[in-house]
Structure formats: structure tokens, C-alpha cells
Amino acid sequence: MSAAPGTDPVRDAPEPVGPPAWPDIDLRQVRRLTDDTGLIQHAVYATPDPHHGYCIDDNARALLAALRLAELGELGTPGDETLPIHTYLQFVFYAFNPQTDDGTPGRFRNFMGFDRAWLEDRGSQDSQARALWALGEAVCHGPTPNVRDLAAEVYGRALPGVARVTPVRSWAFALMGLCRFYEARPDDGPTRATLERFGADLAAALREHRADDWPWWEPVVTYDNAKLPHALLLAGRALDDESMCADALASLTWLLDRQTAVDPATGRAHLSVIGNDGWLTRDGTKAKFDQQPLEAYALVDACLEAARHTAGHHDAAAQWEAHAWRCFGWFVGRNDAGFNLIDPHTGGCRDGLHESGVNRNQGAESTLAYLLAVLELHRYDRQRPGVFERVADGA
Q1: Lowest model confidence (mean pLDDT) among 92-106, 277-291, 374-388
Q2: Which class for 301: exposed (0-12), middle (13-18), buried (19 or more C-beta within 10 A)?
């Protein structure tokens, strides 16, 4: 998780909380965390913390954000709203290690010190899959042939290693990239084969573990949860498998229900994120804190994809749009503690929500989670203008 060590939460809300307003795209904190190597992982308050260096997880997310900005730029976003795509792509490119210690297919390294020395031979399985996700997006949405071609080369080298990942979340992160690559290059046989296998594996894992009161992949609901139904939905659409899509929407609906609370004073529903201090277990026990921004972003993104999928059914799509807007409200104070996580002086997002306040550090994972949520809302609004103006009026 992104929270840096050695800080205490504050006990009062840093900014007043009101109804969510349409968010501007604010790049100040991401730019502050970016140097000529890549994106620094952590911050002390808003200042980059060199002690923890860099990681591919955050640079892959930063590449996603930069690609979204480039895409929005083509749709009319002001020209100065940019992030350095080549810096983040360079980090992912350099992170790939073709010679691992056991002779298996190449893997991405994850952690790099501030001195640019790699701290490991390979990263986690999740980090392999997140890197492939970003590369697949770059092949599909890269703004120039140079970006698309380098991303495709690294993707091709990395796919054999990523094809060996086994955790369900790693399948999900990989599927996000596989589906985007397949969208751009549907004749690529290895991508199609891996997409089919991971899609089938993710669907089978859900069938194996779910019950009427627990339509989920695991006995514990943990982190970045919405990426599981989101990836299954994308795979179902790519493979023209409606049962996958239906299962994805059902599990996402259940996940939202488990993360919805109602304020007894106002009767208004808000996002109540599963805390990482114990998660949500099958007996119904749910940790209320510490809540992480990554979960709120994942829900915004998944709900918008569900809205696209149900676009032919107006009422269903409108419901998913409303869910996305409600999940976004978590960032700006519509949450269990009533605290605004966004710092208006930096554009950054605080690293976590506690019962007594917020973690005041504004590291890469949290700040990118907020920025990506904003970018996905803007992207959807360009596709369906005026939707969120109507949703906000009814919030």
C-alpha cells in the first residue's frame, strides 16, 4: 500500500466537505513526484521521499494516466495538461529483466533505489501483470507510432513470463492489458490464447468459490477488488461470452452493496471502503479502516465500464453512472469519516482514511488513484456529454 511510514493522521478535516463538484484535471503532485528516472513512490506530506525510490507498479499506473491524458488531448483537453509518457515507458522498458536467476522467461523488476540500482531480480506477480496492463494500453492508445511500437516490443518479450502468473488479481491485471492489446491487434495468436486462458481461469475461480450470499473469488475480500469483475467483464466482451459479462456485473453489484453505507442523519448513501486492517471476511466481518484510495478508483473505473456495457439499456447504464459518481465522492468527503482526502494546495490525494482523520502523505499510489478516477470520469463524459451534470444534480 502507498502510505509512507512515520506519520500520524490529523484529527480535523483539512478542507470543508460538500457535494462532489465536477473535478478539474490537476497534475501538480504527480509532476512533483516525477523526475528524469520515473515516478518516486512515496512522499512526506507533499515532498517526494527519496528513501523509498521507485517501483514499476506506480510507474505503470503513471503510464496509464499519461496515456489517458494524451487520449483526452485529442478530444480537446488543453495542451499543457500532459505527463511525460516516455519517462514512464522508459522505466517499464528498463525494468524488464530478460535473464532471471532460475532461467525462466524474463520478468519485470519492481523496486529501484533512488540511486537507480535495482533491489531485486524480479517483482511480484501483481507487478508483472500491472506492467503488461500498462503496455497493452500503450499499444492500443499510445499517441505516436514510437510509443506503440516500443510498448509492443516489451509486451511481446514479457508475455511468456506474465502468462505464468497464478493469483486471481494478477490474472485480472493482466487481462486489462491483454484485452487492450487484442483490441489493437486482434490477429496476435499468443495474446488471444492467453486472454482465453486467463478469462476462463478467472471465470472458473469465481464459480468455484461463490455462493448465493458470497459471489466472490476468495474467502476474504482484500485490495483493488473491483479489478476482478472489471477484468472479467472486459474478457467476456472480447471473447463474446455473455455468461462472463453477467457474472462480472453480478459480482460488481455485490461488491458495491458491501461497500455502501447510509448516513442516518441525511439518508444519503456513500462509499464505505473495505479497510485493510482486516478486510472483509466471509462471515460478514468488515474492517472499517484503514481505507485506501486505490479501492475507490477501481470502483469508479469498473462502474464506468459497466455503464458502457449496458449502454443499450438506459436505466441500467444510468444506475452504473450514478454508482461511479458516488464512488468518486469518497475522495472529497462523502465517506465514513467525512474527511476530504484531496489537498487543494497540491492536487494530491492523501494516503489513507482513518477513523480519526487522514494520512497526510501524498504518495504516488494515492495521488494516481485520484487522478485516474478523474481522468476516467472526463473520458466517459466526452463519450456521453452531460451525464454527470445530471447525476450530480440528483446526488
Answers
A1: 92-106
A2: buried
